[in-house]
Design a protein that fits this description.
816 residues, Aldehyde Oxidoreductase, domain 4, 3 domains, seven-stranded mixed sheet, six-stranded mixed sheet, binds pterin cytosine dinucleotide, binds dioxosulfidomolybdenum(VI) ion
Length: 816
């Protein structure tokens, strides 16, 4: 902690911790939100894209004349028209074995997945642009589509010539004496888990509006994104728009859930087209495009093995994650975001397992690129770890609570086999609290009685530890070189009212409320005195993106540092006015007063007024600046923890699984706003139930996506959202000023493991278990009849050797 920029002064809690109603809700719940599609600029044109109808094909010709001549059309572009401006967007991550790949803005020569943008059409209206797209004639020559990651990772037909071995990323690592653990194990448990391909499916689809002003050489880009500053950087890196002359604005956003944590070809194409046409250009994605090409998520094949004693003490864990990465790396995170993340960040979880070994791989295939979705990587890793823990408990016939108690870390600080330090946690308490909430003995009785009536109840639990508040320190702890940069600006006016600008924007998380709570406590003013601009424009403070459950920690850390600079000014002038020492001045409830002499007080508004208008009140040499921008980052990773227990009822006739109740325990340190935290848990868990029981993106044998509407792609709705009981444990972080730890992804990280464990508990009388998500009615019925579809785990020695093979150098993209 010797870097002064990392020090975030302690905050006295007053408004922090209160269930303050969300200040953004009056606007959002009465339909007054302004989303991307609500923003219009005079004279704007509308864009539509011709997308590839084939999974893998050479483009023999593109005939655009009819589209160009269609009345109302202003521009028709193919790859050759934009080549001189931008060959594509590139992504690379510093994990071993991740090589860069380029994603073209428009496919050139070859198309590599169904839905890939090929032709851009801009017209007076979206309807005209769509009609004109229909007039474009694509001549394609089919190439073999590479669709199965389990075979393509071993070579064979190539999905994208830039990766001639079909390997998007590949690496391996060992920590601790793993061979000894397995040699000496009296019990080895192994399984292969396969969470399916899903979409984040935010309620608001993607979109952007570019307005280039040629008179000033300035660009304004409104975009529905979690990463406005990264989008702006890409405008400069890939298209040459000067950063100081471009502004990226993120209006109200109807969910991002990780999908909007990327930069997309469309977001680069519209600025180019606007500059070319010297007119504003708008593109709003429809649902079909979103499901086809908005980035896919969470699909993995995770093989996991535990070396254990007969009592169920796990001594070593091996994990192999294979991801179907799709046709390109999604910038900036790449295919590492699922594969590397799931094995490197989650292998031992809350358990005291002395040795771990892992292999991560992503196969390049002719499918939509794999991107981020809430709990990215963590979900699949947690699913494998927690489901195998239940499997092991069943094998040695102890309760799922007891096996976790036998393995859980009990003393802190604790260093995991990878050398990562955990300062604190309520890991054992989480397990015990869940057991108490569920009333386990009563549940066992109810389960037994129900079975006699032909009803199958199941209980599943899953516990997690989540590296939250994503920071430079978190990546460095894993040997990565990526850096985060975040700031906040805080300004106090002469009347004592405060404006906070954060570099991290919100997609629904409630930053407008929680950042005001933090600023109110630092400055001792009421919540109502603070107005927050939560990163709506890149003209304000800087942010690395609302990802990795970091705003509660990082944005509030930046706000704390910037507000403290103002606090020091207030304290200095108040001390002078009250003829007291600065150390004795307290700020609270809108007043500055002397500790121990509360009658000696001033309104903070009067102190602010004196700073602006009355130099006679200033101490000597006082600088009256009342606006500060400060950065903050954590030097070390920090971890929140928790768990879920779920009770399900499985109908063996219809195969339908009803989640009867969810019990959640969350320890995200100090909560800024418990109501917001609970909303985040509920939302994340319901998304987790969705991908566990209902949602799946399905490709057919030719590589066509069959699930391109909400009729086929079934997101959970209120009718399948279960009742919740939530308990909070509070182990404050020593790193963040207020003791806060992040939690925005925790619901989705651990819920699928709890659902699958509950399903498998319900299936236990049938002697079968499922290893694949979603556990659809069809799979459940087949399981009750004794059939399980997934092949067993692959051979570890073979995997380990395969992972040692060097990743091939870049090939030529044009090849195939
Ligand atoms: N919070 C709190 N006390 C804590 C921790 C957090 O009151 N101890 C509050 C925070 O101030 C914030 C919310 O809870 O208002 C979530 O905080 P945090 O865990 O810091 O996560 P972020 O704000 O960085 O949000 C990102 C996270 C991610 S990565 C995904 S994906 C996701 C999620 O948030 N996407 C969401 N939740 C979402 N919720 C909505 N409505 N929409 C999305 O797109
Ligand atoms: S998947 Mo969240 O945007 O880290």
């Amino acid at each position: 902690m010797d870097n002064p920029h990392l020090i975030s002064p302690p905050i006295t809690r007053n408004v922090i911790g209160k269930r303050v109603p969300r200040s953004e809700d009056a606007k959002l719940l009465t339909g007054r939100g302004k989303y991307l599609n609500d923003i219009n600029v005079d004279g704007q044109f509308h864009a539509c894209l011709v997308r590839s109808p084939a999974a893998h094909a050479r483009i023999s010709s593109i005939e655009t004349t009819q589209a160009e001549e269609f009345p109302g059309v202003h521009l028709v572009w193919t790859a050759s028209d934009i080549e001189e401006f931008c060959p594509g967007i590139e992504a690379q991550f510093s994990a071993d074995g991740c090589l860069p790949m380029t994603m073209p803005l428009l496919a050139k020569d070859v198309v590599r997945y169904v839905g890939e943008p090929v032709v851009l059409v801009i017209a007076d209206t979206r309807a005209i642009a769509e009609d004109a797209c229909d007039l474009v004639n694509l001549e394609l020559e089919q190439i073999k589509a590479v669709l199965d990651p389990r075979t393509s990772i071993q070579g064979g037909p190539v999905a994208n010539g830039e990766r001639p071995d079909n390997v998007g990323i590949r690496g391996r690592a060992t920590f601790g004496d793993i061979d000894q653990a397995f040699n000496e194990a009296s019990h080895v448990a192994s399984a292969l888990y396969h969470p399916g391909r899903v979409a984040a499916a935010p309620m608001e689809t993607r979109g952007c509006l570019a307005d280039y002003d040629w008179t000033q050489d300035r660009l304004k880009l409104w975009v529905s994104t979690q990463m406005p500053h990264y989008v702006k950087l890409c405008l400069s890196l890939f298209l040459g728009f000067d950063e100081s002359r471009s502004e990226v604005l993120s209006p109200d956003t109807g969910g991002g859930f990780g999908q909007k944590a990327h930069v997309f070809p469309e977001e680069m194409l519209m600025p180019l087209a606007s500059k070319h046409l010297q007119a504003p250009v708008k593109w709003v994605e429809d649902r079909r495009e979103n499901l086809l090409a908005g980035s896919h998520a969470h699909e993995q094949f995770v093989t996991i093995q535990y070396a254990a004693t007969d009592e169920g003490k796990v001594t070593g864990v091996r994990t192999h994650a294979l991801v179907d990465g799709g046709a390109y790396h999604m910038p900036p995170q790449t295919m590492a975001v699922e594969s590397w993340c799931s094995v490197a960040v989650t292998p031992t979880g809350v358990y005291d397992i002395p040795a771990t070994e892992y292999v991560y791989e992503a196969a390049v295939t002719n499918k939509c690129p794999m991107g981020a979705y809430r709990g990215v990587g963590y979900m699949a890793g947690t699913l494998a770890r927690e489901c195998l823990m239940d499997d092991l408990a069943r094998q040695i016939k102890i309760s799922p609570f007891e096996i976790r108690r036998r393995n859980v870390v009990r003393e802190f600080p604790w260093k995991n086999p990878q050398g990562i330090d955990f300062d604190e946690g309520s890991w054992l308490a989480t397990i015990n609290t869940l057991e108490e909430m569920v009333d386990y003995p009563a549940f066992l009785k109810r389960q037994e009685a129900a079975r006699k009536e032909g009803k199958y109840l199941g209980l599943g639990i899953s516990v997690f530890v989540e590296s939250s508040g994503e920071s430079t320190g978190m990546l460095q702890a894993h040997g990565m070189h990526e850096i985060y940069h975040d700031t906040a600006t805080v300004k106090m006016d002469s009347t004592g009212s405060v404006t906070v600008t954060s570099g991290l924007n919100s997609q629904g998380q409630g930053h407008q409320t929680t950042l005001a709570q933090v600023a109110a406590d630092v400055l001792g003013v009421p919540f109502e005195a603070i107005s927050v601009d939560a990163g709506t424009s890149t003209k304000g403070a800087y942010g690395s993106g609302t990802v990795g459950s970091r705003a509660g920690v990082i944005a509030s850390g930046c706000v704390n540092r910037a507000a403290h600079a103002i606090r020091e000014k207030l304290v200095a002038v108040a001390a002078n006015m009250l003829e007291a020492s600065a150390q004795d001045i307290l700020l609270e409830d809108g007043a500055a007063f002397v500790a121990g002499a509360p009658e000696s007080r001033l309104n903070i508004a009067d102190v602010a007024s004196a700073i602006y208008w009355d130099a006679s009140k200033w101490p000597e040499g006082f600088d009256p600046g009342m606006e500060f921008t400060r950065a903050w980052d954590t030097s070390r990773p920090m971890f929140s923890n928790g768990g879920h227990a779920m009770i399900v009822e499985l109908d063996p006739v219809t195969g339908f699984v009803n989640v009867e109740k969810v019990f959640s325990v969350e320890d995200c340190g100090v909560m800024i706003n418990p109501t917001i935290v609970e909303g985040q848990i509920r939302g994340g868990v319901v998304q987790g139930i969705g991908l566990s029981l209902f949602e799946q993106l399905v490709y057919d044998k030719a590589g066509n996506l069959s699930t391109t509407s909400f009729l086929d792609y079934q997101t959970p709705t209120m009718d399948v959202s279960p009742p919740f009981e939530i308990r909070h444990l509070e182990t404050p972080s020593k790193i963040s000023a207020s003791g806060v730890k992040g939690m925005g992804e925790s619901g989705l990280i651990a819920a699928p493991a709890a659902v699958l464990n509950a399903v498998n508990d319900a299936l236990s009388p049938f002697g079968t278990a499922l290893y694949e998500l979603p556990a659809t009615p069809e799979k459940i019925v087949r399981a009750t009849q004794g059939t399980v579809d997934l092949d067993g785990p692959v051979d570890w020695a073979e995997l380990w050797d395969r992972a040692a093979a060097p990743v091939l150098d870049r090939g030529s993209m044009e090849m195939q």
